[in-house]
Amino acid sequence: MVKKDYELTYSGKKPKREIISKTPIVNLEKIKDFGKFRTLNNWNNMLIFGDNLPVLKTLLSDPSIKGKIKLIYIDPPFATNHNFRVGKSRTATISASEEDETAYIDRLHGSKYFEFLRERLILMRELLADDGSIYVHIDCKIGHYVKILMDEIFGEENFINDITRIKCNPKNFPRKAYGNIKDMILFYSKTNKYIWNDPREPYTQEDIEKLFPKIDENGRRYTTVPLHAPGETKNGATGKSWRGMLPPKGRHWRYPPEVLEELDKKGLIEWSKRGVPRLKIYADEFIKKGKRRQDIWEFKDPQYPSYPTEKNLDMHKVIIEASSNSGDIVLDAFAGSGTTLVAAEILGRRWIGIDNSPYAIKISIKRLLKMKNCRLFTLYNATGKPLPETLQEIL
Ligand SMILES: C[S@@+](CC[C@H](N)C(=O)[O-])C[C@H]1O[C@@H](n2cnc3c(N)ncnc32)[C@H](O)[C@@H]1O
Asked: Are residues 251 and 360 in the same domain?
């Protein structure tokens, strides 16, 4: 990792060595197997109830997990100073009605919050495979500080994207500010040899009409591009004259003359009135592969979430498909309602989910068991205490 001459300073920032060596391990008490089908290599997916810091350290002592995790997604608390509760309506609320159940508490802020996150990120990096990567979902109030921490832990050279995620529809609100409809996802790899499956998305009708403005006699949409490209070729075939024409100065034909003849025979060259040839590109062929995904994503969160701050499932599918392969291990250490785990399950990945909220664990189990053919997963208790009533109910 490239050493930097600047860092985020705050009180209570521990040396990295100390975090790795002094974080205690915990006993992962096996509670129950759920689901039906075994995954590859006799692996059972893991749903762990407890504080993720000692759990991450415990996972580091398992040689089948340390350095084997290919993808981590986390959506930690955002230092909002709220208690997130689940009301009778089953929607996210920050009210304090007696009937509401606490989902999780987000009260850490300032240096305590940053150190809380940093300690966990340091252990997560140790768990990642060399071709692995991490996505950290965060908001724009603290995300810029988290970016600095990530640069320190993962290396600025391993920063890949700061993805802007459109999270909701524009709202009317009383604040003197622009409406906030986005949050951010920081994407880092462990090394420069990370898994990348070049995600694509379909072209919209608007894209197609803009990119392919012409329509041929058969009603097919197309556009044309020059038949020559930059760079001079003095001796090669693409620098030679074709039908008495040399490529313009400083350019060469895209294809040798015999290929240009072939293209013309197939009707793939359009001649202008002044006799300038251009290559025809047809929309129906070009769009098959889809367009490359950019770094602004619109994935609105569910309108009626089963858990406060539940994220969009399709967004998780995009991340998992882009940055892992079938059978790989995916980790979410702030699993909440298990959106990452459900997406991993759908896409045939192995997974590990951790959360210290009994309500989150309960919802995750329910969501996973609702799926057809859910593979086996084991619930572990890492708290060292008896399971709370909320969890006893579903055993
Ligand atoms: C923003 S929510 C995650 C929501 C999730 N992405 C979803 O789609 O449902 C953050 C989660 O982190 C959990 N959490 C906070 N601190 C934790 C800790 N120290 N150990 C384990 N989980 C923790 C909370 O209980 C909460 O469920």
From this structure: no
